[in-house]
Amino acid sequence: MKVLVTGGTGYIGSHTCVQLLESGYSVVVVDNLSNSSEKVIDRIKRITGKSLKFYKVDLLDKPALDEIFENEQFDAVMHFAGLKAVGESVMVPLDYYNNNITGTVNLCYVMKKHNVKKLVFSSSATVYGNPASLPITEDFPVSATNPYGRTKLMIEYILKDLYSSDNEWDIAILRYFNPVGAHKSGLIGESPRGIPNNLVPYIAMVAVGKLPYLNVYGADYDTPDGSGVRDYIHVVDLANGHIKAIEKLKNKVGVVTYNLGTGKGYSVFEIIESYKKASKKEIPYKIMPRRPGDIASCYADTSKAQRELEFKAVYGIDDMCSDSWRWQEMNINGYE
Ligand code: NAD
Ligand code: WQD
After folding, report:
1. 162-168 long-range CB contacts below 8 Å, 24 or more apart?
2. Which of 294, 298, 317, 324 is the best mutation target for the ligand 2 pocket, counting ligand atoms within 8 Å of the beta carbon and taking the most?
3. Would you name the residues annotated as active-site residues?
4. Hey, which CATH number is domain 2-183+231-263, 2.40.50.90, 1.10.357.10, 3.40.50.720, 3.30.559.30?
5. In whole angstroms, what is the distance from residue 280 CA to residue 2 CA?
6. What is the pTM of this model?
7. What tens digit of pLDDT does each residue of 149-158 get?
8. Which of 20, 224, 286, 322 is deepest in the core (most CB within 10 A)?
């Protein structure tokens, strides 16, 4: 089975390419390298001992995308390509709407033209906004508080409309909680450009000595220790969730939506402790005001994915932190 992976040189896409190749799929990557490095392709080859094809193409370039579909006969598409920085999306919303929404619409046009109608889409727990209760099930009301989140929500609606217009499609919408960690080899991981926005990559920079201390955004939340609680999921578990989803799409399912998380919430202070243990480094921090837009707690009800995909995350926070640290130590400047 041949799978097109858009955004396949990115953080989650690269880990999913490894799991796809190791599960016997043939893989073709399309990425414009706006937030990743072509070096990832060689790393994936080194890890798996298998080859994969790479096209440096932008999803906004519909003719180029169409040509790839002319040359390759895909059975399914995993669509990771997109811009993902919440703060940046507030500054340059048009870039986010253009890249994420137009990119996805182009992809769907080309898929439809070539009769490729199986799609796995990277959505986000951000579509739950500020949930009224926890844990979060897939049927919770959805909303978004920033342009990035709105692109995810709009794409979900676009995909549902597409299915309503043509029931030959089978689409899995996967709502990720907080992906962290790296492949055990230390060869692929998260390599953010500039100062990281997300907690674990920021801690990694502090541990490796590139940033002086962590800002803890709020210690006065209504949580056990006052800091924000999130459902962190190891990126390899997340990648395996995609394998389960693509297997599911081999049957006629229509549009299905799954949370991919562990179901457990950990606080910022718990992550700091685990990272200290993994890295054997001090993680100095300062308590700062809450970050605008943040919620106190967020974690998934994972029972639907467990029941319908037979997916259950196996890695805990100590694995997440030690694998993140191995990647960081082995690649002090990421892929640069
Ligand atoms: P990433 O930035 O590492 O990977 C995205 C990849 O897409 C990059 O390699 C980038 O170069 C590529 N890309 C972006 N726009 C493109 C375009 N127009 N054409 C071709 N390639 C393009 O991000 P990631 O963390 O791997 O996230 C993958 C997907 O998962 C994204 O859609 C993101 O919104 C979603 N997601 C991520 C998280 C997270 O915390 N990392 C959480 C929930 C959902
Ligand atoms: C986690 C916790 C922060 C950084 C974001 C997106 C979401 C999804 C995943 C794409 C929070 C605290 C963080 C720091 C801190 N991405 N924190 N100091 O905000 O849960 O989710 O990434 O879809 O859409 O919003 O993740 O890693 O930024 O924050 O104290 O320097 O760590 O306040 O409690 P978040 P995060």
Report:
1. 162/108, 162/112, 163/254, 163/255, 166/112, 166/117, 167/254, 168/117
2. 294
3. 148
4. 3.40.50.720
5. 43
6. 0.99
7. 999 999 999 9
8. 20
